[in-house]
Sequence to fold (226 residues):
Amino acid sequence: MEDLKVKIIEVKESILADNDADADVLREELKKDKTYYLNLMSSPGSGKTSTLIQTISRLKDKFRIGVMEADIDSDVDAKTIAAAGVKSIQIHTGGMCHLDADMSRQGLKEIGTDDLDLVILENVGNLVCPAEFDTGSVKNAVILSVPEGDDKPLKYPLMFQKADVVLVNKMDALEAFDFDLEKLKGYIHMRKPGIPIYPVSAVTGEGMDAWCEWLENEVAQYLKEA
Fold:
């Protein structure tokens, strides 16, 4: 994988004062292109990339998928995703801990949406900044891993208020941690009543079929209506 080449682009924060308005414009642009844009957020080490690999393996024969890997530096994750057989680019944020709508637009222009049904943004890893900026995505997915603890929705309420679906990763490690899944679900639903929650393991594949079925239905319905 060391010899695998991926495109790296440097994006800059938008100078637009109203990012939310720009995000709405981007959503309309993507709808015309018939491209579903998913914003994937989590803490570092939660298993975003390994979860993406599991997701790609189940959906790449059903949709044309592209992945944008956002980070302050490095191209490790983009190489990993490219090796999985889908279109991938690395986005360097120039020190910013998030992407906004125009930064997303810059990345989407580089990856090209004409031949993609689904583009997944692996946002910069933290539970604070990414929640504050609308990227123009159709939906926001959040991954929380078992080792992080079941109290994160209490500590980072905005992230879970902005989420449209939550994946609880590393369920294979549940017995090793003081983690109460039902308590976590209650905390999440305090922030976002009714939000779907999928306990998964990117190691064993547990729960991945259910999560991918949700995403497949989301994308299929979007493409039908676009």
Notes: The CA atoms of residues 166 and 197 lie 5 Å apart.
